[in-house]
Design goal:
Elements: E1 8-9, H1 11-18, H2 22-30, E2 37-41, E3 44-50, H3 51-63, H4 69-82, E4 89-91, H5 92-99, H6 103-111, E5 118-120, E6 123-127, H7 128-135, H8 138-141, H9 148-157
Antiparallel strand pairs: 1-3, 2-3, 4-6, 5-6
Helix pairs in contact: 1-2
Amino acid sequence: MNITEKQYITKQELCQICNISESTAYKLLKSKKLNFEKCCDGLLHYYKIPLCEVQQYMREQAEKGHYSEKQKEMISRYYRKKLKDYPDLIRAKDIQSITGYGKESIRKWINSEKILGVVVRKRFAVAKDDLIDFLLSPYYANIIRKSEEHISDFRTIGIIQ
């Protein structure tokens, strides 16, 4: 039977569809972010998860951290004003003070190409426009453990209360 013909899926199918681990799927179910029915067939225990719930969850995840054009403009304006006194090529040390994150986080962002950077005299540096693009990205918006500076910026912009 094709998955689109099914009304319910199992936890293993949830993991495959959403590309998540079994422990993440279990946490989703336990936290009731997805409705489910626990079934028992002899010694076999499994979850029946409505496919419509999974589709809704995937839509919400896809929209998470994406800004409207108006919000993007507002955030961009805020960060351009905040960065106006910085040179066009910003050092990692300055990015630390701008974002409130440590040098290891910044190094990981650059190495994983989340933010475009270059090495200048054995030090990381990022173009101002590339930093602003990163600050507007869903990745930056969805950081779970936000720094105090990140939270303060979002409060100032009006993204969070």
